[in-house]
């Protein structure tokens, strides 16, 4: 089989896996991995299939390298600018620093790889290869590639999932809380509540009466529970008091979902749920809902553009931490391979 045939077969295989798994349950992270793999194999196959008369492999490689360099620099600068914007608008916190940190890493990592490669090659001194430095260089490239690709898969599928239409008649509409400002709903939280209200009104127009469950406990820096402030806002916007039941004890997304399910069941409206959160938070909330075995799909509310890059990075870091043992397992062969290379090359 030719290289084009192999590439096409891999593309179709990963596309089939994506479609089957998405049909089975759209809330799985692996769907993003399959979709990303299908796109990458399709792109590689298209490049391989180009005839030499159209563009030479040398020009194609040079163009790809130049495009990657320009794209990397542009991405790094954009992330740093966004990080500074986040600090100015949202204040100093680790979460708000993520864009700035990521931008510095994107710009510094290629430079560090070049320095290590030059050192290992003895570019200036004519020295033999340094096995330890070469092993470190290989490990750096492998780990950076893994986390880079996994972020692309996460971000790509997060966008795809957030744009899905979930055709179900929910018995409950759960709104996930976030921080209050002066005891009142923030613009970010209001966006979630307005999305929930729009869905609630559409369901009422269709003759159904879903339960609105604003969910959120009292943070250490808040004067009251988020769920109580959210319920007040929903009622002020015309929601029927009989259709609003606040959940006021949760402090994490998982608790939001678990405790809201209890409120839902106690209200006697057991059935499917729609969870409303911000668009950047949709996929992780859906993954948690699936893990808890809840009959729930998640939809997103619009977020200010400047907030999105930092928020996506924060969600990705949370996903990595939640699946830390899996990520450690994946990276272990990288470490073993690089250690093997260092040991074998250092022997006379």
Automatic annotation (TrEMBL):
- What Pfam families does this protein map onto? DUF218 (PF02698)
Q: Which InterPro entries match?
A: Cell_Envelope_Assoc, DUF218, Rossmann-like_a/b/a_fold
CDD domains given in the database record: YdcF-like
Q: Which GO terms describe its biological process?
A: Gram-negative-bacterium-type cell wall biogenesis; peptidoglycan metabolic process
Membrane-crossing ranges are 6-21, 33-51, 57-82, 94-120, 132-160, 325-343
Q: Where is the DUF218 domain?
A: 171-318
CC per GO annotation: plasma membrane
Alphabetized, the UniProt keywords read: Membrane, Transmembrane, Transmembrane helix
Q: What is this protein called?
A: Uncharacterized SAM-binding protein YcdF, DUF218 family
Q: Which organism is it from?
A: Agreia bicolorata
């Amino acid at each position: 089989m030719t290289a084009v045939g192999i590439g096409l077969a891999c593309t179709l295989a990963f596309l089939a896996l994506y479609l089957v798994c998405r049909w089975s349950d759209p809330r799985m992270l692996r769907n993003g991995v399959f979709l990303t793999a299908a796109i990458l194999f399709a792109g590689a196959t298209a490049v391989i299939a180009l005839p030499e008369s159209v563009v030479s492999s040398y020009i194609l490689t040079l163009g790809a390298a130049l495009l990657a360099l320009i794209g990397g620099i542009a991405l790094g600068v954009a992330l740093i600018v966004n990080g500074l914007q986040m600090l100015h608008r949202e204040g100093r916190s680790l979460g708000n620093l993520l864009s700035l940190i990521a931008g510095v890493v994107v710009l510094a990592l290629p430079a560090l790889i070049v320095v290590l490669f030059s050192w290992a090659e003895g570019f200036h001194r004519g020295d033999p290869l340094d096995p330890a430095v070469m092993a470190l260089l290989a490990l750096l490239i492998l780990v950076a590639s893994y986390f880079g690709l996994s972020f692309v898969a996460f971000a790509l599928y997060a966008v795809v999932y957030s744009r899905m239409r979930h055709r179900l008649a929910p018995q409950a509409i759960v709104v996930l809380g976030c921080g209050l400002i002066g005891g009142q709903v923030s613009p970010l939280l209001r966006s979630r509540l307005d999305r929930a209200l729009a869905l609630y009104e559409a369901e009422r127009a269709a003759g159904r009466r879903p339960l609105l469950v604003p969910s959120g406990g009292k943070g250490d820096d808040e004067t009251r529970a988020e769920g109580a402030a959210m319920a007040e806002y929903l009622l002020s916007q015309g929601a029927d008091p009989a259709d609003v039941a606040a959940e006021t004890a949760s402090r994490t997304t998982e608790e939001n979902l678990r405790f809201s399910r209890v409120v839902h069941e106690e209200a006697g409206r057991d059935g499917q749920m729609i969870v409303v959160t911000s668009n950047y938070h949709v996929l992780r909330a859906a993954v948690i809902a699936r893990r808890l075995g809840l009959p729930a799909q998640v939809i997103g509310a619009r977020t200010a553009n400047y907030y999105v890059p930092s928020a996506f990075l924060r969600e990705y870091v949370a996903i990595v931490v939640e699946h830390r043992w899996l990520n450690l397992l994946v990276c272990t062969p990288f470490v073993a391979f690089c250690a093997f290379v260092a040991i074998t090359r250092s022997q006379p």
